[in-house]
Design goal:
about 280 residues, alpha/beta
Length: about 280
């Protein structure tokens, strides 16, 4: 069993609906009553991390699989009705307020620190947010962290325009190190050896014209992500970090709606966590 001390961190990658793998991992950790003094999540990792920090076992799975099947909050319907491929009003307001209540009290009382990552549209750099008590601000931050470029609107946090943290810091391992947490457990949503295309991502000239630095970040995101994966694999080989990741290539897309595929990936996450943690 893993040994947790005051220098141990949990790092949660995003990945859209691939984040159901992380749901399985976190449910295993909660079943084993494993907690960390510090955790950091990006995009789907931020969403799932909030449920982990409030000790709401199964909430992530229920939200991402059961409620997806019922409310169909991804795809053409929300695009037509909500002007985005994801119904953020449903996910970040109706779900936590009424349908699947979020336990803000348990989150506030959790002594562990939790940061969520966003991308500042003005600077093109990562922002790291820590909020335990202001419920509206918590939602603003996690919504911004999960606002996929092109697919979702820009979200304002403290008056600043923000998008998905995965644009510039998909795997915030170095952030944990920067804060002094040198023993990290990293949860990825891609198999070992996965790399994105090395070509720069083209950004249409009419997209984000007001935010030139964001456009640069979007063009370079594949390169930065691959560099982060290489760092993770190197540190893992050196025995400096523990990595929990899918064991085979993922068949679940970022906007996946297949309940069977999502359920299989959730179960894989639980099994992989058990295998890694228990050795």
């Amino acid at each position: 069993m893993i040994k947790i001390d005051e220098k141990t961190a949990l790092v949660l990658e995003g990945g859209g609906m691939r984040g159901v793998f992380t749901c399985g991992v976190l449910d295993y950790l909660m079943d084993q009553k494993i907690s960390f003094p510090y955790a950091i999540g990006v995009s789907a990792g931020a969403c799932n991390g909030l449920s982990y920090m409030s000790h709401q076992r199964g909430r992530g799975k229920f939200s991402n699989i059961d409620l997806l099947a019922k409310y169909k909050y991804i795809g053409i319907r929300p695009l037509v009705k909500k002007r985005g491929l994801i119904d953020q009003q449903l996910l970040f307001h109706r779900f936590p307020d009424r349908i699947l209540p979020y336990n803000y009290k348990a989150y506030a009382e959790n002594p562990g620190r939790f940061e969520m990552v966003t991308t500042d549209c003005m600077t093109g750099r990562a922002c790291y947010w820590e909020e335990k008590f202001d419920e509206k601000r918590i939602i603003d931050i996690v919504k911004a962290s999960s606002s996929l470029p092109y697919a979702c609107p820009i979200i304002y946090v403290d008056g600043r325009p923000m998008l998905d943290g995965g644009i510039v810091d998909s795997i915030p391992l170095l952030r944990a190190y920067e804060l002094g947490y040198d023993k990290c457990v990293v949860v990825l949503t891609r198999n070992k050896g996965y790399r994105k295309s090395t070509k720069k991502v083209p950004v249409p000239s009419f997209i984000y014209k007001k935010y030139p630095r964001l456009r640069v970040a979007l063009r370079n995101r594949n390169k930065i992500y691959n560099e982060q994966l290489e760092l993770v694999e190197r540190l893992e080989e050196e025995g400096k970090i523990i990595v929990i990741r899918p064991e085979k290539p993922i068949v679940v897309g970022r906007m996946e709606t297949s309940v069977k595929k999502l359920t299989d990936l959730y179960e894989q996450g639980y099994a992989c966590a058990k295998k890694v943690i228990e050795g």
